[in-house]
Design brief:
Layout (H helix, E strand, L loop, with lengths): L9 H15 L3 H32 L3 H50 L2 H4 L2 H14 L6 H29 L1 H27 L1 H19 L1 H9 L3 H53 L5 H44 L20 E8 L9 E8 L15 H9 L6 E6 L2 E2 L5 H5 L16 H6 L8 H11 L2 H5 L22 H15 L4
Antiparallel strand pairs: 1-2, 1-3, 3-4
Length: 516
Amino acid sequence: MKDEIKEHNVLQNMIHLLGMAYKQYKIVFLFIILETICSGLLPLFGLYLPKLAVELVLDNRGLNHVLLTLGGFAAAYVLLQCVNSVASQGKYPFQNNLRNVYMRALFEKALNCDYSIMETSEGQTWYEKARSVVNNGDASATSQMFNAMVSLISGLISFAFIFGIISNLSPYILALLILLSVVNYFSDGFALRYDKKQRDITGDLQKKSSYMERAMADIGAAKDIRIYNLSLLFADIKENILRQMFVIYTKIKNRYFLADSIKMLITVCRDGIAYAYCIRQVINGTITVPDFILYMSAIAGFSAWLNGIVSNIILLKRENVRLNDLRAFFDYTNKLDPEQPLPISMIKQPVEIQFKNVGFRYTDDTPKIIDGLSFHIHANEKAALVGVNGAGKTTIVKLLCGFYKVNEGEILINGYNIDLFKREDLYTLFSAVFQDICILPVTAGENISFLKNAESDEERLIHCLEIAGIKDEIMKHDNKLNTPMLKTLDENGIVLSGGQQQKLLLARALYKDAPY
């Protein structure tokens, strides 16, 4: 699967992110443009203000002229600063809510993507990596890329002016500053490459950590935790996972610390050489004192802005890796349906089911669970699968429902291979009650129909509850079908026993009224 995943470059992901923002909130582009221009021009005021002040003093044109000129300069600066602040603050809520858009899409994708992927450890690790991309507040990849884009473009605007100033001073000084900055870039790249290599490891640890948190908070496990004193075992497992994460993240941070140390040393050397050159030019009378101040400010700014540009490029590359994890989950977690699927309406009742020499294994490196299985269930015939635990009974049902694809042979419904239909259409044929119990913290009626209360058929709901033998337990509550299930979101929620939960799931299957 990894070989199939497309790696999007930084530019492609920037375009993708901007496209998502434009699709959701068009006004955000106005804020981005204003913030980018203002942020690019504001530093130039600080660059030219000392030079202007010294020139005004040396001109001896009077205090009023100095104050009027500097006042106009300050007024323009304040106005630009206000526009920049409004744009930045206006952009933030839309940028922040874009994470919620991605989180909802990711949640829906996890619920609807190919079952065989989400059931595996690798698939769960993949999901945790994708979830961490947008589930980390302002440190999420989407927010970081937005900020880095604005900072990079505004930095380039400022840098263009500084580049022109320093090139006028000396092309050799300019070349030196650029060369040493390139060295800084590669030192950052060293840390970034190591960080990227650890993504699979940290994703797997995050998956395990999330599982332990869910398990420790699972009310269904609370009885076993207390009776068998499992709290210490849970705590030890969680602590071991956190210890491993600490070791990995420490190694990553150490790489970045080394890279930052190299950058700091290079910056000191670079600025020292440039300052010495400027001082010599003043002594020789090649440049004036106001120009000296401008060049000194430009050289200091060059270091800061070029470092900022490089840092933003590094940040974009780092967050690009993370955003690729998110996009890969969206793009590659569904197995392809046939190019020209058959309409599910071709399956007429009564239904016949046939397994022909079916073989199945979960992964290429695991033994077969099913090998050469053949049977035929005729129309209106009832069949029971009997076998020891692990014999493959549930796997057969999952294959029939289309959760897995067979490795060998074929499964036929009314003579049609199920692989000829869309997975989503195939699911409409079956009502199944599995051993795993799924009850959601919504109302009892919504748990059965999976529709909003106003959209459900109340009479049909009651009829299904009665057939399943759970009607009295649900209807005895004051709000009847509108009573919430579980106490997760409502302290008055219904908590059923294990047998009652199975009956509720049976009522759910009856309500769906699928052909099989």
